[in-house]
Write a structure and sequence with these properties.
85 residues, mainly beta, globular
């Protein structure tokens, strides 16, 4: 039996590469928002050259981005199936 591993997305550390501006990405983070502590949590973030990392959902008081991946490769591989009645 042969098992193949298919890579759909690539994860980057912020030191390796930053996402394009105005592009939402999935990120693994450590951080804090009010009384919520995030440890190795997944969230959606954006990058801005002016502001750095930000979220539409949380105004983080502390934020450390461990790694991020672009969602576009997943969207590019999605197939649209049309059903006829």
């Amino acid at each position: 039996m042969v098992v193949e591993k298919q890579v759909i997305v690539r994860w980057y550390t912020p030191d390796e590469k930053l996402p394009e501006m105005d592009t939402r990405v999935v990120a693994t983070i450590d951080g804090r928002y009010k009384n919520i502590k995030f440890t190795n949590a997944l969230t959606i973030l954006e990058w801005s050259d002016e502001c750095g990392w930000f979220s539409d959902d949380y105004d983080f008081e502390e934020l450390d981005v461990i790694a991020w991946c672009d969602l576009e490769p997943v969207r590019a591989k999605r197939k649209v199936v049309k059903f006829e009645s």
